[in-house]
């Protein structure tokens, strides 16, 4: 028995936790760097067993009527909502994100998507089409489940990412083997237990824990029909290449370096709020972050003044305190990466530091000692940036805003699009005609007008260019989990054949 705060996390298949004889690793609380739990790494034999468990559940689950599947998923929705705070606490400990955030966003937005897809399939969302060809012939289509699907998650929204993949996957009649990020694995077994408690048949949702090696074994597995991946572009390239070897379906939700365009006529305070949400929410560890903030030359002073006023509302501290709205970075490796970029911005890019920088943040009295070993950085703003700087070009995935000025809207659009990434983009303006014209020219899959970051279940989201393949959520989200079968029916009694005319 370990004396860590959380019980050991095992792998999960056949509807129950499965002890493993293989090695274990630890997950830590990023706010203090203290270990939270031991986690069993899945061996190849464990992964094979989890996939076999999913494969044996598939024939029955895929032929269960959608309304019955929906009933079970909605029972899971009720359990998740009832346990919101308990699950949010786990997410806060594992990720370092403040409880004020995880209790209002993470569990909520994951659960909403499960509810959405349950209703979608119960309401006919898996229906095919009928096309009348001739009076005595027609074509009909069916949307059929794919089989055993793999989900691989990033560490920034652990439970939410797991649910965004599991919800459409299971609703469409597939079975899933899910691998949480090894950085934030605590939620995995809890989610599997919720599904089992809700009545999900054994084997429909399974968890295997571990790092890249476990992920690589999953993506290459011959019994897997699809891989849905969330993570970095470089990892996504490996995953897509591996999946292509088996001609598997893929969904790729990858990184970004998104532009936020502030227009001359905008409501400045609203734009500043948007820029802050787009850079400092979740300590900047959000894939859609609007890290390149384009501001008209003439507005720069006003914009920065308001921004600096509002920066005083960012509060680091005890992550369970309701007043804390800014947590640490997720761990040591990521801390060193983000800190490396902040130092590079100052020393090599020679950008002007408007706020923050490489020093540790200031904590409220009484919390400083406990948080001393945690992976804290200060929210940081660089201004007078140029397009060629590394801090402007590369995804930092931390609380680092770069401000760039522009002269004309056309120039801003061109510079906004000058990146190999295309996840998100947004614009702040009162001129709605102009807003739609600009949005139409922005090369990104997720765009906002006078808003930033909201991603409701109804909204299909996915990146363009190197930022991804396919979408999650919304009506289009279900299509990534089914394959089409077209059937031509001829009632004429005479097969149209070139041979009959010989
Ligand atoms: P990562 O690529 O390091 O890891 C993601 C997952 O891939 C982990 O579970 C990891 O174990 C696994 N993995 C590593 N090597 C693998 C391999 N060879 N084969 C299979 N799996 C492998 O990403 P991360 O650091 O956990 O997450 C941060 C990144 O995720 C950022 O770039 C962020 O923008 C992106 N992200 C994108 C979205 C989106 O919806 N577009 C959402 C959240 C995060």
TrEMBL record:
Record domain Aldehyde dehydrogenase: where: 20-486
Active-site residues per Swiss-Prot or TrEMBL entry: 253
Transmembrane region(s): none
Catalytic reaction(s) noted: an aldehyde + NAD(+) + H2O = a carboxylate + NADH + 2 H(+)
A Pfam family: Aldedh
Annotated spans, Disordered: 1-24
InterPro entries in the cross-refs: Ald_DH/histidinol_DH (IPR016161), Ald_DH_C (IPR016163), Ald_DH_CS_CYS (IPR016160), Ald_DH_CS_GLU (IPR029510), Ald_DH_N (IPR016162), Aldehyde_DH_dom (IPR015590)
Origin: domain of life: Eukaryota
Its EC number(s): 1.2.1.3
Composition-biased stretches (Polar residues): 8-24
NCBIfam families reported for this sequence: PRK13252.1 (NF009725)
Official protein name in the record: aldehyde dehydrogenase (NAD(+))
């Amino acid at each position: 028995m370990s004396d860590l705060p959380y019980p050991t996390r095992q792998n999960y298949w056949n509807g129950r936790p499965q002890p493993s004889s293989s090695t274990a690793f630890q997950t830590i609380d990023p706010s203090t760097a203290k270990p939270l739990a031991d986690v069993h790494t899945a061996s190849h034999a464990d992964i094979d067993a989890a996939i076999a468990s999913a494969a044996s559940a598939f024939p029955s689950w895929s032929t269960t009527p959608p309304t019955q599947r929906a009933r079970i998923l909605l029972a899971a929705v009720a359990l998740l909502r009832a346990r919101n705070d308990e699950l949010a606490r786990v997410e806060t400990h594992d990720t370092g994100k403040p409880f004020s955030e995880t209790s209002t966003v993470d569990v909520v937005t994951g659960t909403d998507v499960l509810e959405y897809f349950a209703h979608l399939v119960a309401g006919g969302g898996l229906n095919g089409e009928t096309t009348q060809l001739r009076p005595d012939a027609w074509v009909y289509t069916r949307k059929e489940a794919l089989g055993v699907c793999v989900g691989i998650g990033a560490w920034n929204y652990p439970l939410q990412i797991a649910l965004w993949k599991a919800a459409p996957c299971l609703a469409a009649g597939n079975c899933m083997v899910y691998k949480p990020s090894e950085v934030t694995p605590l939620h995995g077994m809890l989610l599997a237990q919720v599904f089992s408690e809700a009545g999900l048949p054994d084997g429909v949702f399974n968890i295997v824990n571990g790092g890249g090696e476990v992920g690589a074994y999953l993506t290459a597995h011959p019994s897997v029909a699809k891989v849905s991946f969330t993570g970095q572009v470089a990892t996504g390239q490996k995953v897509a290449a591996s999946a292509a070897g088996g001609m598997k379906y893929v969904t790729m939700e990858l990184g970004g370096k998104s532009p936020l365009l502030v227009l001359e006529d905008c409501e400045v305070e609203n734009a500043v709020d948007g820029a802050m949400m787009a850079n400092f929410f979740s300590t900047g560890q959000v894939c859609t972050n609007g890290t390149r903030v384009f501001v008209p030359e003439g507005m720069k002073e006003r914009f920065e003044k308001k921004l600096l006023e509002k920066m005083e509302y960012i509060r680091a501290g005890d992550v369970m305190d309701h007043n804390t709205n800014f947590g640490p970075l997720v761990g040591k490796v990521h801390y060193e990466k983000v800190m490396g970029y902040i130092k590079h911005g100052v020393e090599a890019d020679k950008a002007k530091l408007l706020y923050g920088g490489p020093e540790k943040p200031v904590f409220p009295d009484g919390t400083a000692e406990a948080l001393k070993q945690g992976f804290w950085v200060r929210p940081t703003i660089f201004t007078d940036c140029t397009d060629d700087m590394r801090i402007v070009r590369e995804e930092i995935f931390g609380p680092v805003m770069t401000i760039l000025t522009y002269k004309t809207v056309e120039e801003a659009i061109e510079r906004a699009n000058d990146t190999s990434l295309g996840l998100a983009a947004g614009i702040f303006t009162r001129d709605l005609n102009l807003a739609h014209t600009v949005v139409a020219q922005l090369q990104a899959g997720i765009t906002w007008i006078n808003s930033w970051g909201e991603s409701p279940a109804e909204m299909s989201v996915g990146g363009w260019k190197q930022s991804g393949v396919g979408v999650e959520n919304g009506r289009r989200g279900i299509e990534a989990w089914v394959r089409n079968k077209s059937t031509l029916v001829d009632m004429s009694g005479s097969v149209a054949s070139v041979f009959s005319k010989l």
